[in-house]
Amino acid sequence: MKEKILRYIEPLRSRYRLRDCLSSGVFLCTLVGLDWWLRWIYLEVGITTPASYHSAAPWVFTIAWALLLTALVRLLPARGQRAAIRVLGYLFCALYITHALLHRAKGTFFSFSILIFAADGFKFLDPSYLQVRKLVWVGLLAGILGVGLAARLVPPGRRSVKGRLAALAVVPLCVLAINLNRMQNLSDRLAIHFNIHQASLLYEDFSTPNECLPLTGLYQYTFRDFCMTYGVYDLLSRVGNNDVIEELDAWYAAKTPDPDNRWTGRFAGKNVLLVQLEAIDTWMITEQFMPNLYRIQQESLDFTQHYTPLYLDAGTFNTEMIVNTGLVSPFTGSTASMYSRNAYPDALARLLTEEGYTARSFHRSGGDVYNRAEIHENWGYEHYYSGEEMGIPAGDLDFDTALMGAYDAMTEGDPFLTFLITYSAHGPYEGSAVSERYLDFAAARLPADTPEMAVHAHAHAYETDLFIGALYDRLEADGLLEDTVLVFYADHYNYYTLDDGLVMAQKGVTDKNLMTRTPFFIYEAHTAPEKIGKATSAVDILPTLVNLLGLDNDGAHYVGNDIFSDGGGYAIFADYSWYDGETYWNSLGDASPTGEISARNEEIKRRLQMSWNTLRTNYFRE
After folding, report:
1. What is d(CA 506, CA 543) in angstroms, rounded to the nearest whole number?
2. Rounded CA separation 298/68 (Å)
3. Sheet containing strand 578-579, strands side by side
4. In sequence order, what are the beta bridge partners of 135?
């Protein structure tokens, strides 16, 4: 009888073991496959690839993480195992497609640090952003099917003690492999597989998704990015902020303020009209398409080597923050409250209101977008005027000329600071109301072989220029132009063309950092026009204005320098590369630095780190 029973049970046991093994095997292969497929599709993204694709570092991370997750899942009972496979598997499928879609829309992979801007970014989604390669969708479908199959294959019944012990033994081995891989390949600035002596610096700062994801693989990237963004490492290693505060005290005390110069106080007491030009790039300001802005530029102090690095994925807010506060936000680990609750005593609006100015800001978007209403007030503006508050009809919100309806509020006060953010050049372009109105106009004035997205960009720029012309004429007619300083700068290069190659061709460069050169000029009726070739960037705008307006602030707390001083003279990019007008140091590709270059590298990293620490500790709180 016993032999007969065993004869029937044995096939069931074999089937149970087979399903158990197949479930774990399919789940493991699905996890590895998602990472392999994503990195293979984007093989040419970043300087670290394709060499990193063939190196051991990301593969060890990926296989170790896949084994770790599979082992952890096997520790659960059958029902919990099925649920865990679905939750983890579909989560990484979602991250996989998010990386692809964001790279299509913004040219960069996903980072948790952008989630504080996600609600606002969704408002600008467009179907064209979904036009990723078909291979991306193939990988997503395979991932979804693999996860579903792995969950269905989980056999019913209790897990064996032997099986659980085996899975438990795998866990510390995987954790050990992850840490050994990190120490072996990504520490001590080793010159690893792909000739990048600063691989450890990339991993340490983890601020460049396009480099870090190929460097570490999908799973280690997700884990470290999450920990960096939400301060997990800080929580684990925190010993208090006293040492950081003392370091900041010493840093600011040791800084030598820019001395007064012939420009100091030149525009003291004048009205200030600060205009942040949405996506208006250098190649778009032409006499043909932007005649008003072109004319003003030719009559201004024109900073011809100005750059706007993208430290945050939210390009507009990135520059908005820098120009208004003089500080650079942390690339990771920043929260919305950092902007709305921190103290900013050196912000432009705060300084000018202390001098008796009326300070107001204007933009077509609602005050909830990037939480501007609250943040601008925290920076010192008395009020943020949205399109609705300006009385702009919903159908006209994309047209900058509609801003003229708020002209009286913009010029109220004696003196006044008005911060304007234009919008018409914002993407997406195809099918937009602005393109519908001006696309034929632009196409008729451009060569027949002009790329379609460049035609769209010019069409959108034309609408912005109409607003600038109307604003200038009204200021002149009202007698305000004589006593008003007009400051124009772009929030970022025009990435709404969705083609960096097109933009680089327009600018005659082949490097994505140098592609971020943007317009910046200052107009004042009694100041002779001048082309200024000193290398500058967004961090230099505020200290320059503070000097020109003769404000009681030595600029020591700013990241940048007064352009008219002997300090500064270089643009710092998000990957720690820099350009001083003559030398371009590419931190990801150049040889090991020596001498002055090494000192400059340390200085720029220190400047950024001190800014981040200032914001993270709310250093200026009373």
Report:
1. 30
2. 62
3. 571-572, 578-579, 584-585
4. none
pLDDT tens figures, 66-101 = 999 999 999 999 899 999 999 999 999 999 999 999
Angle formed by the axes of helices 56-74 and 78-106, nearest 10°? 150
Give the other-Cβ count within 10 Å of 180's Cβ: 12
- Hey, which residues does 421 pair with through a beta bridge? 276
The C-alpha atoms of residue 225 and residue 488 are separated, in whole angstroms, by 35
| In contact, 568 and 540? CB cutoff 8 Å | yes
Torsion-angle region of 523 (φ positive above 0: left; ψ -120 to 50: alpha; else: beta): beta
* Cα–Cα distance measured from residue 596 to residue 580, given in angstroms and rounded to the nearest whole number: 13
Check if the beta carbon of residue 543 is closer than 8 Å to that of residue 258.
yes
Residue carrying structure tokens 């707390």: 557
**What is the per-residue DSSP string for 246-303?**
HHHHHHHHH--PPPP-TTTTTTTT-EEEEEEETT--GGG--TTT-HHHHHHHHTSEEE
Tokens of 23: 């479930």
> In sequence order, which residues have a C-beta less than 8 Å from that of residue 58 and are 6 or more positions away?
35, 39, 52, 214, 215, 216, 217, 220
Per-residue tokens: 255: 């800084």
- Label the pairing between strands 536-537 and 358-362: unpaired
Query: Which helix (H) or strand (E) segment is 215 a member of?
Result: helix 209-229
The tokens describing 256, both together, are 């030598």
Query: Is the whole-model pTM more than 0.85?
Result: no
- Rounded alpha-carbon distances, angstroms, from residue 363 to 161, 181, 369, 392, 403: 64, 49, 10, 11, 8
DSSP state of 394: G
Give the N- to C-terminal CA distance of the chain in Å, as an integer: 85
In this structure, what token pair is assigned to residue 337?
């409250």
The predicted-structure confidence for 199-249, as pLDDT tens digits, reads as follows: 565 676 677 788 889 889 999 999 998 987 776 765 554 445 678 888 999
Task: Tell me the two tokens of residue 282.
Answer: 């250098």
Q: Do the beta carbons of residue 234 and residue 50 sit within 8 Å?
A: no
Q: Distance between CA 493 and CA 282 in Å, rounded?
A: 8
Phi, psi of 489 (to 5 degrees): -155, 155
Contact 220, 62 (CB under 8 A): yes
Cβ–Cβ under 8 Å, residues 358 and 382: yes
Residue that has been written with the tokens 């069409």 in this structure: 459
Q: Which residues of 414-434 are buried (b: 16+ CB within 10 A; e: fewer)?
A: ebbbbbbbbbbbbbbbeebeb
Cα–chain center distance at 156? 47
The reported pLDDT for the residue numbered 164 is 83
Cβ proximity of 323 and 541 under 8 Å: yes
Q: 373: which 2 tokens? A: 């209403």
Tokens 């100091």 belong to 264
Cβ burial 72-88 (10 Å sphere, 16+ → b, else e): bbbbbeeeebbebbeeb
Quick check: bond before 415 cis, omega within 30? yes
The pair of structure tokens assigned to 549 is 């307006």
* Residue 518 burial (CB count, 10 A): 24
